[in-house]
Amino acid sequence: LSIGATAAALGIIFLIHNGTFSKRKQQSKDDDANKKEDEPISPDSASFYNQLGISEEDLPSHIRRDIHKQRKRKSKEAMISMKTKMYDNIHMLDEDREPLCTISMKKANWYIRKNIAEWTSPKEGSELSKDKDAKCIRLLFTHNGANEDEHKKSSSEKLYLRSAKQNICVSCGSDGHHIRHYIVPYAYRSLLPDDYKSHMSHDIVILCPDCHVRCERSTKKRMKRMESDLRMKMVTTDGDDAFCSPVIEDAHLYHVRSCAIALVRWKDTIPEEKVEEYENEVRSYLADCCKIEEEKETILTGNESLTKAQLQKACSVKYRVKNPRYVPGSEVVVRSLNDDRKKIEEFIVDWRKHFMTVVDPKYMPTGWRVDNPV
Question: Which of 6, 105, 302, 367 registers the highest number of CB atoms within 10 A of its CB?
Answer without folding.
Answer: 367
